[in-house]
C-alpha cells in the first residue's frame, strides 16, 4: 500500500510541476519534468527503466562513437580509480543517449544490470524521462538527478551526476555519468561528485584539443597564473591564419561570450587586445612573461601558448551527397541515417534497412544508389510479392527453353540486370530457404548461374536488403540462413516510423508536391494530419495525397475532405468524460498503480483531460 501511495504522490508532484506550480526541486529537474509530460507525453507513473538496445545496435553506436570512446576512455579510468569500491558506476553515453562504455565494480554486476547501468542502455529523456544523461543532453549543462528527481519510479533508488562532453568545435558529443546505487538521502552529498565530474570532463576536452590540433597553436587559459601550466581552465586552438580552429567548451564562459555563440572562426584580435605575432612570447620557451591578456569583452585573463607540434594539414570533412540530404528535413534519426549511409555509398558493404512497413525503404535504397559512383541500374524486387515458383527465375534468369513455358530467348534475370549497379531486395525475410543458398553464392562468388545453364556468369552488384521483420530472430528460429544473414548484415540502418519524425509536416508537403494535382492542406487539416498516428507510414501519406488531389481538384483540402478515421479520433479526444467524477479518476489512478495512460484509457478520456481534471480534485 505504501508503494502505491509513493507512486501517487510522485505522480501528483510531477503533474503539479508540469502545470507550473512551485516546488523545492532544482530548476533543471522541474524543466525536465515539464518536457517529459508536455513534450514527450510520458506517463509520470511509469516504472520501466531504460530500454536495452540489441547487440547489433550497440555495435553500430560504438562504431559511430569511436572518436568519443577514444577521447574519454583514459579520463574515465583515471576518474574511476578515485571512486572505486564506493558503489558508483561510470557511464559514457553518446549524443543519442545510448551507453557505449561503462566502468563498474564487478562484484555489483547483478545490481548494476537490474538498474540498467550497462552498455547498451538508452537514456534519452524522451524514452525514459528525467535522468542524468537525458537531462544533460537536453540542456547541455551538468546536472545531479538524485533519487526521486527521476521521472521513472524504477530509477528513484539512484543518484546520477552527469556532465556534457564537447568536441573541439563545441558540439555536444556525449555525456559522462557517475551513478550511485545506494546514495544518501541528502542531494548535497553529491555536490563534490559534480565538481570532480566537471573537472574530469574539462581534462578530457583539453586532451582531445591538444591531440586533434597538433598543427595549431594551443592557448591555455586560466583566471590564476599559478595553475596555468598544471590545470588550465580552458583552451583555444589558433590556426596559421589567426582564427580559432578549436576550443574547450568552457572557454565561452571564461571569455564572457554570449550563450549559444561560438568562438570557432573568430579572429584572435576579435577576442583579445593582443598582437597575434606576439603569441610566441606567451610560451614557456620565452619566459619570463607576464602571461596576462586583455579580453575584448572586458577583464584580464592569464594565458600560456604552446607551439604547433605537427605540420599544418588541411582537414577534409565528409559530406552527405545530395540524394541522401533530400530524404529528410532535419529529423535527427533520419539525419543520422543519412550520415551513416554516406560513409558506405562507395564501399562494398552490404546494407540492411529496417523499419515498419511503408516507411520508404525503397526510396532510401535508391538515394544510397544515386549517391554512389555506380553507373549500373537500380533494380528492386519485393521478395514477398512474388510466388515462390517465380522468384528463382526472376532473380537469376534462365537460358532459352529452360523449362516448360520458358521464353524461347530466355530471361536475363534481375541479378544480371543490376550488374554494375544496385540490387534492392525488399522483404528479404520472406525469401524461401532454398533461394537463400543461391543468393549467398552470388554474394560470395560474385557470379550467377541462370536456371538451366551449365556455366556461371560474373556479376558486380551492390546488395541493399530490407525487412520489417527481425532477421536475427528469424535466424534463431531457423527460418533464415545464418551465413546469408552475416553476409548481408554489414551496415544496419533503422528507419523511424512516420509518427516519430520531427519533420512530419515537411514530409507531408514534400509528398503532396510530388503528387499529381499537388493538393494543398489547410492549417486545420494539417493539424489533424500531424496528430494522426500514420500506421501505414509513407505509403499512407501517398494514398491520402492522391485521394485529396482527386477530391479537391485544386481547392484547399479542409478537414471535411479527410478520411473519417482522422476526424473521428480528433473529435473523440476532445469529448469530456461522461459521468466520471474527480474521486473516480483518483481511484482509477490508484487501481492502475499511478499509470496515467492506463487510467485515462479506462476513463475513456485523453491524457491531457485526465491531468486537468486530476488537478481540480486536489
TrEMBL record:
Domain Sigma-54 factor interaction: 327-550
Keyword Ribosomal protein: no
Coiled-coil ranges per UniProt: none
Keywords: Activator, ATP-binding, DNA-binding, Nucleotide-binding, Transcription, Transcription regulation, Two-component regulatory system
SMART domains, A to Z: AAA
Domain of life of the source: Bacteria
PROSITE patterns: SIGMA54_INTERACT_1, SIGMA54_INTERACT_2, SIGMA54_INTERACT_4
Pfam families, per database record: AAA_lid_14 (PF25601), GAF (PF01590), HTH_8 (PF02954), Sigma54_activat (PF00158)
Keyword set includes Cell inner membrane: no
Name of the protein in question: Sigma-54-dependent Fis family transcriptional regulator
Native source organism of the sequence: Paracoccus methylovorus
